[in-house]
Amino acid sequence: MKRVIATAAFALAAMAGATASAKDCAGIAGTDWPAMKGYTIGAIAGGPDCQKAVALIVIRDADGNPVFHQSYVAEYVMVLAGAQNSDELTKALQDWISTSDQQFKTTADLPEWKKGEDQPMLGDFAFYPEEGMDRDTYEKIRAAKTPVFSYVQGMESVAVITVDPEAGVVTIGAQSFPG
Q: What's the helix, strand, coil split of the chain in %, to 5?
């Protein structure tokens, strides 16, 4: 595992135009997505220090094809921001992609988008549908009851995605929470 992390640190540092050094911070983590048979979720991060690290999250289908990916600067993601070294970053990445204790298990658990409202609400907290998604599309996704994966995408929200049988991986939107 240490070799994989060192290799990841070197690759990420090289992508940033820097040379890898002993003070670099890097981590890697992976897990299955039990609700989606054969799907896996992985994360890798690295940089000249943990706060300047870039983190990448990737979901792969049962054939190993990447079907979703997104990158973030670690210092702007709540669960990654406190890491001080590679071991802490690796643990933070594992927590980031964990499928246990998800707020939403399926799209049916998403908050209802009531007629006449600007967006769905979960108590006092807004759910922000993906840009371009209207109420009818959102409610159709909810009714499908497909598995959901959520992960912290900043300091006050989680990204919510699902796998639609027709459209593939769909980013539904972001649920806000107190930061």
A: 25, 35, 40
